[in-house]
């Protein structure tokens, strides 16, 4: 049987730099480009304003988050409402289920998702813990695949879920392999706030953690994202050697010690990462 064609993932560096800048600055950078459709870009920017907020937003709140004018935001929201992507009640706007079509199209067209799922399922069955595959997307991590054995986080996560990169094992590992320009943009725009009493939020602490991640070739996070949660991550390297994604395993801190995680989980995780890496081209 012929080997499957490798999956080509675009390196995260360029996306990280772009996503770290305010939306209005990004749109202004295309001024003078005759092929750039500004109205479409504004509409997508308005949609993205809802990504980190669960409650409905007003026009003023969207304008503040996007740095677009209230008039532009109003027209975008009106159009999105007419197309069924948002709903409006008493001046407050919320996303409608139709937006899921956009994300579903991405995951359905990305063969890495379907190819990696059985590998993660095998890993989770082998170690009896929840595992996940994530990539770096701006200042966040984006989950592509999860294989849940036990609920370890307070909130359920699925494909397309996002978490801050600075306090997650996969995020910290992926940031550790970014060039200096990307890290500068990250520190300039990321909101580094303590999620627990143990969260590292200072630049010196995080830079030291990045250096240690490169030396060990894994990251272990101990109750920095959420109390009672430990997670360990290993890199997924493309055939070129570039780190393009990361696999994590999450456990309850009161049930699995750090030393046990390293001894019991690291080997199987690296084998899974190598298997996924063989699917990824340059």
Give a description of the structure.
The protein has 282 residues and is of the alpha+beta class. The protein folds into two domains: 24-99, Arc Repressor Mutant, subunit A, CATH 1.10.10; 110-279, GAF domain (Beta-Lactamase), CATH 3.30.450.40. It has helices spanning 12-20, 23-28, 38-48, 59-66, 70-82, 100-109, 111-127, 169-176, 180-189, 203-216, 258-277; strands at 86-89, 92-95, 130-137, 140-147, 162-164, 219-222, 229-237, 243-252. A hairpin with a 2-residue loop joins β3 (130-137) and β4. α1 (12-20) packs parallel to α9 and α4 (59-66) crosses α5. The two termini are 23 Å apart. Mean pLDDT is 84; it is low at 7-21.
What's the arrangement of secondary structure elements?
Layout: H1 12-20, H2 23-28, H3 38-48, H4 59-66, H5 70-82, E1 86-89, E2 92-95, H6 100-109, H7 111-127, E3 130-137, E4 140-147, E5 162-164, H8 169-176, H9 180-189, H10 203-216, E6 219-222, E7 229-237, E8 243-252, H11 258-277
GO molecular function: DNA binding; DNA-binding transcription factor activity
InterPro entries: GAF-like_dom_sf (IPR029016), HTH_MetabolicPath_Reg (IPR050707), PcaR_PcaU (IPR012794), Tscrpt_reg_IclR_C (IPR014757), Tscrpt_reg_IclR_N (IPR005471), WH-like_DNA-bd_sf (IPR036388), WH_DNA-bd_sf (IPR036390)
Domain HTH iclR-type: 37-97
Q: Which properties best describe this structure?
A:
282 residues, alpha+beta, Arc Repressor Mutant, subunit A, Beta-Lactamase, 2 domains, six-stranded antiparallel sheet, two-stranded antiparallel ribbon, globular, DNA-binding
